[in-house]
Amino acid sequence: MLWSALPSIISGLELTLKLFGLVLLLSLPLGLAVAVLKVYGPKLIQGVITLYIYVMRGTPLLLQLMFVFFGLPYIGLTLDRFPAAVFAFVLNYAAYFAEIFRGGMVGVPNGQFEALKVLGISHFKGYQKVIFPQVLKTTLPSIGNEVLALVKDTSLVYILGLGEVLRAGQIAANRYASLLPFIFVGILYLAVTGVISYMLNKIEKQYQI
Amino acid sequence: MLKIEHLGKKMNGSDLIKDFSLTVQKKEIVSIVGESGSGKTTFIRLLNQLDVPDEGQIKLDDDELFTSQAGDRKINKKIGLVFQDFQLFPNLTVIENLTLSPVLNKDLTREEAETKAEELLLKLAISDKREAYPKALSGGQKQRVAIARALMLEPQILCLDEPTSALDHETANRFGELLVSIIKDDVGVIMITHDLGFAEKFSDRIISSRQFLNQ
């Protein structure tokens, strides 16, 4: 009976992974840009970003998903289910990533910036070659935590009627009155997070100097 | 030749440096001694454009350092600084720390920069640490890398902030001898230190930080 539910669970997994990959790809650079603006941007921008981060971290992601999909059409912005999910997730995760990056940036000793200046190295190049690699090294563990949380948070898109892997499992569990699909879905999550943890560890080791 | 004329800097409303003048020639080692809080570090920061003076002029071979925008690279590079805590870049190897600035600023090609860096490392007796990261170096080794990094830009004046604070007596002596050998290459040295014995042994001139206020 699990076999007959398999195709829908696999296509659910595909959607989960697609959402995860897209959100990660978009929210990491956006988070970095937001962090840079929050630290170096003009006062007004800093204020806007503080408010944005407050709202994103201060309300449930589930509510944000509903707001983007059901609420934005009222102001004339109608998104399909999947783009709406990506949009909401990217906004939410970029806020968390921004706070992590900001912490890493503030943590680099002032002397490093002064050393760059005395050596006549421009701000941009200094950031690229010296500051950002240090930020990455100190923030990687926290980034890794968020990345794993994202894998699991993708299950929230059921609220928009998207058939991700957990929803597929639930439908199968109801149809066959069995817990087996849930167990299978749990194992799938573990497999995905296992692979990601392994890769995160590798990256961390690479930056561990 | 470095010429400092009528330099003034206030800190929290009171004078830290006032009407201070000093000339440093090439191949000269000048030590500034004095207790902490007497403006020694501020003075070094002013020379390196990390702070802006309230009054006065700092001239290098008659080029004014502060008429142009602060941070002007060309002038900046003529004065080198070795920080008290060295501030090596922890994510880069020794050789990368040395070649970063000349290569990024296209002053030298990578090959030229590496050849030059290797010569300096050899001279400072740390060529075996070429590929090491700063974390793996001792205090004295870090200092020599920091000096080599500053010398890569061929400064006319090299500033040293408390160079002996991380060194034991014997290493400090060896460092002093190294310093004397460096200035043979047309570099003037200004170092601030509270180690009077070291200053007396290796400097051509000693100035008390009290002179910052003309006392």
Text of the CATH class of chain B: Alpha Beta
Tally of individual domains of chain A? 1
Please tell me how large the radius of gyration of chain A is.
20 Å
Shape of chain B: globular
- Let me know the average pLDDT of chain B: 87
Low-confidence stretches of chain A: none
Q: Which architecture of chain A does the CATH hierarchy give at level 2?
A: Orthogonal Bundle
Helical stretch tally of chain B: 7
User: Sheet with the most strands of chain A?
Assistant: none
Element-by-element helix/strand order of chain B: EEEHEEHEHHHEHEHE
Biggest sheet strand order of chain B reads: 6-7-8-3-9
Could you please describe the fold and organization of this structure?
- The complex is a heterodimer of chains A (209) and B (215).
- Chain A is mainly α and 209 residues long.
- Helix content of chain A is 83%, strand content 0%.
- The model of chain A has no long low-confidence stretch (mean pLDDT 92).
- Chain B has 215 residues and is an alpha/beta fold.
- Chain B has a single domain, classed as 3-Layer(aba) Sandwich (Rossmann fold).
- In chain B, the strands form 2 sheets. Chain B has a 5-stranded parallel β-sheet with strand order 6-7-8-3-9, sandwiched between helices. In chain B, strands 2-1-4-5 form a 4-stranded antiparallel β-sheet, with helices on one face.
- In chain B, α6 links the parallel β7 and β8.
- The mean pLDDT of chain B is 87.
- Classes of the chains: A mainly alpha (209), B alpha/beta (215).
- Chains A and B meet through α5 and α6 of A and α3 of B.
